[in-house]
Amino acid sequence: MAMDQIAATLIVDDKPNAFDRAAADARGLWLDARELASKTGWQLKPEGFCRGELCMPLPPARETEFSRKDGDSTLLNFTALADAVGKPWAADAKHQVWYIGTEPAARANALRTRKAPDFELPDVDGNLHRLSDHRGKKVFLLAWASW
Questions:
Q1: Is 129 inside a domain boundary?
Q2: Are strands 28-32 and 73-77 parallel, antiparallel or unpaired?
Q3: DSSP assignment letter at 118
């Protein structure tokens, strides 16, 4: 069954990936298999959804939830994969952006280490500062929002 093609952005591993060939329906975000493999490393193999040596076998009799033919291409449901491996995700269908988060176990492990992830932000003068530049020192972060 052919689906209406859209352009979409998938943010995974905190990296935005622009897809020229995508489709969205009530079951999730479907991405062209070749484009998904080249941009994120995730691909469909006989073992299941794989990225490098990590493979998530597809549940028997549920393959159609994860993969479908669309003309001469294969579309893969990346949000179904996120659900299957316990990664939270959010969609902004209006702007055609999907975000795949970190699974709860990885977030919990990061909290146990009590180390903030490294990030880089500009100061009021536009100079960039990395949190890692201040390791071992006390750092006070102040954030605000206008809303």
A1: no
A2: antiparallel
A3: P
**Count of domains observed in the chain:** 1
Q: Does 85 reside within a domain?
A: yes
pTM, 2 dp: 0.68
Q: Which domain holds residue 83?
A: 6-106
Please give the chain's pLDDT, 147 residues, in tens.
Answer: 455 788 899 998 888 999 998 988 877 899 999 999 999 999 988 888 898 888 888 878 888 888 888 888 889 999 998 888 888 999 988 889 999 988 777 777 777 877 777 888 888 899 998 999 988 888 887 777 777
Decide if 128 is inside a domain.
Answer: no
Would 82 be classed as within a structural domain? yes
